[in-house]
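Input chain follows. Return C-alpha cells only.
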Amino acid sequence: MKKLIAIFAFFVLSALPLASPAASNKTVGYIKCPICGDKVNPKTAKNSWTHKGKKYYFAACCTKKDIAKFKKNQQQLKK
C-alpha cells in the first residue's frame, strides 16, 4: 500500500507545472537605484525625483547627501 501511495504521489507531483523564474522572482516590477544599484519598488520608494521627464527612484540606503549630489550631476548634463 505504501508503494502505491508513493507512486501516486510521484505522478501527481511530477504533473504539476514548474514555477517559471519570473513567477518566483519577487523583484518583478522593481527598478535599479541610479546611485547604489539596489532594487527599488517604485510604489513604495520613499525618495524619487523627476528631471527632464524621467523619474528616478532611490533606495532607502541612499542618504539625502547622495541624492543631492546625484541631482546636481544630472542637472549639469546636457540632453
